[in-house]
Amino acid sequence: RITDEKTLLVASSDFVHYGEVFDYVPNIVRTPSEIRAGIRKIDEGAIDYIRHMDSKGLLDYRQRSGATICGILPIAVLLDTMPKSAKVELLDYSQSADVTNETDQMVSYAALAFFESP
After folding, report:
1. What is the pLDDT of residues 13-43, one digit of tens each?
2. How far is it, in rounded angstroms, from Cα 73 to Cα 99?
3. Residue 75's CB: how many other CB atoms inside 10 A?
């Protein structure tokens, strides 16, 4: 075992980068609210694999969806490192459009915490 009560493992990544500048414009969106909802749905697909501690499923999902999650490999390594009994909690989710109101290009963010069950 490589973790103990004095060890904190961190994998840092933003989630989907949307827009032509990021070369990712899935054909699921039309209006600004549809863009935001569509990107959130893509992110939730990745978050679901993370919640289930499924690194292979997460990497396969990225291939299928094209989700531009740049730190997906560190996330997968973290999932493979954590005990399978760990609980995962979504702490926060946001999109840059929450601040800028710009949906032509935006980035989304998710904060998740992993807790070992007693």
Report:
1. 999 999 999 999 987 667 999 999 999 999 9
2. 28
3. 22
